[in-house]
Amino acid sequence: MAYDMYQERILQHYRTPKNFGKLDHPDFSGEESNPLCGDRIRFELKLDPSKSTVAEVRFSGEGCAISMASASMLTQKLAGQPLAAVEKISRDDVLQLVAIPLSPVRVKCALTGFTALGRAIHGAPASADPAQA
Fold first, then answer.
1. Which of 5, 39, 75, 96 could serve as 67's disulfide partner, Cβ 3.0–4.6 Å?
2. What share of the chain is helix, strand, coil (3-state, %, to 5)?
3. pTM (predicted TM-score)
4. By the 8 A CB rule, do 83 and 47 touch?
5. What span, in angstroms and rounded, lies between the C-alpha atoms of 29 and 34?
6. What is the pLDDT of residues 103-127, one digit of tens each?
7. Per-residue pLDDT tens digits for 46-61
């Protein structure tokens, strides 16, 4: 029965994702796609003035229920967190958020947002993007 509860939570996050949209002038942004399922997710983060804590986080894109729900749940975990803690989030942390058994293909779906987040925080700050210069 717990499995059904987690499935319902995934459907709720898919139907009404949290923190969906774009930020004006994010400090960090990163994107990832999953060609196996057609998922494409972009993460954007704005830090507080001290640049040590996530003040705002948004994701955008499209994808299957698993990819969209895991991205939505991940944004809830990130809000207000110190950047150092965000950098330590692991793939296992994300899979625990999803909390249902996943096939290898679905694991890739669940981790698409996580990979986009990694590209955002470990890549160049969004303001340093050559396309924006």
1. 39
2. 50, 20, 30
3. 0.86
4. yes
5. 17
6. 888 999 999 999 999 999 988 555 4
7. 999 888 899 999 999 9
